[in-house]
From TrEMBL, chain A:
InterPro entries in alphabetical order: ABC_BtuC-like, ABC_TroCD
GO biological process: response to zinc ion; transmembrane transport; zinc ion transport
Protein family: Belongs to the ABC-3 integral membrane protein family.
Pfam families associated with the record: ABC-3
Function statement: Involved in the high-affinity zinc uptake transport system.
Keywords: Cell membrane, Ion transport, Membrane, Transmembrane, Transmembrane helix, Transport, Zinc, Zinc transport
SUPFAM superfamilies, per database record: ABC transporter involved in vitamin B12 uptake, BtuC (SSF81345)
PANTHER family: ABC-TRANSPORTER METAL-BINDING PROTEIN, HIGH-AFFINITY ZINC UPTAKE SYSTEM MEMBRANE PROTEIN ZNUB
Protein name according to UniProt: High-affinity zinc uptake system membrane protein ZnuB
Keyword Cell division: no
Amino acid sequence: MLDDFFIRALLAGLGLALVAGPLGSFVVWRRMAYFGDSTAHAAILGVALSLAFNLSIYAGTLLVALVMAVVVTALVSRGQAMDTVLGVLAHSALAFGLVAISFVPSARADLNSYLFGDILTVGMADLTLIWIGALLVLGVLMWRWQNLLTATLNEELAMAAGINPRFERLLLSIALAVVVALSIRVIGSLLISAMLIVPAAAARALAPTPERMAANASLIAGLSVMLGLLSSLHLDTPAGPSIVAVAAIFFGISFVFRRG
Amino acid sequence: MPHLRQGGGDMTPLIQANDLTILRPGSQDIVLQNVDFQIAPQEIVTVVGPNGSGKSSLVRALLGHMALADGRISRRPDLRIGYVPQRVQIDTAIPMTVRRFLSLPRRVSDEMASAVLARTGVDGLQARQLTQLSGGQFQRVLLARALLHDPNLLVLDEPTQGLDQPGIVAFYKLVEEVRRETGAAVLMVSHDLLVVMRASDRVICLNGHVCCEGTPQHVSSAPEYRALFARVAKMRWRYISTTTITITIMAMTTSTIITTTTAKAMHFHAG
């Protein structure tokens, strides 16, 4: 069954959807949308480095995404004007990545697959790595859930309970970098943050508690993966963008039910 | 020392701070200099002072959230603090019911949640979203959360911000009730000078250092206090003159009931 490219694509997408729900919810709650973008765009630079130095794509993107996540977290803690700084970082990372990749002849042909993902060519090794990574990040989020949530809600209340908000923030940044690295083959650098934010934003409408929002976000992301891949198969549309497009339609529908 | 409400018990101060000096984070500006502070079990202490006088810095230092440039703080080993921070704003992006909020970060049973909500008069709101509560309801939910886990010190930093005058009076009355029922000491930072001072055993007037300290009567007639607030009072006072205020305070210290009307006249917003 796993020989089928479509099944592998589906499983890879569902693995990411599972972790995208809760992690994406934190991105929405903490208003880190642009943060996701800058980390994801930096990943292209990681691809260029990996190809130039013959590294695994995952190792290269993880490294660059981690550096970016830590730099941005440090800037946030210092209270810089966030939207400008992040805008500069996100787009310069993308620009440098694209320039760097143009020096690697073998990568030029594949550029599209790194920008928009190529879920239909996911192999067994990719699939294994994606699921191990996704379960690992999910495990960390569940382990720290109460602390992460308190620190997200109010830092003073968190500190009074002995929680270090900076540590929790750093943990989320690292989780984000890991998920960005895992997603680059599947959904591509340009649409990773969409995969995190859109399902979570759609899930906000009907959720009374954070846990329900995170679970609903995973569900919506999973349905988007399934319907997006089916449409890609039958209508011959690009897979990654189809998945995000389905999630966006869910978001539109959620407006009808919006409350609070 | 305040008068004892209950006999016996360990009357060692819950927190004792000596000679505190605090700098503004990331600079050499002195926020507080040579401040001594202590609070005894069951005591209600109010810190008053103009904006930027270091009130919140003092509280944050006592909680251990702020580094000291000098001085030391000792906390009793059995100290359990219930804390209501200044200006808590819940982002509408986070769905959060009152019930779920009480279980952060430590999970509590439905019975415990219901008990603390009942004590602050908001039982039944468990399923409501935090962002849909009125200002008064939200402050009572915050106070209820602070009462979980049996605190022996409540720290309330400007707990009545955003409330109207009747709401403010009702809130301080509630704080007094809670102190009476639980025996917890209360440390408050406030702008609502006159109303809050009435409910206090001891008032500390702060302006970078301790200007004056003592019973509400003592502080309100102290020249340092009056010098500090006279200018503000002239600008802000809408209802009665400063002379009348002083007389009113004197009269108020013996009475225990204030009507909403008096409270309205007495509310003093130095902000």
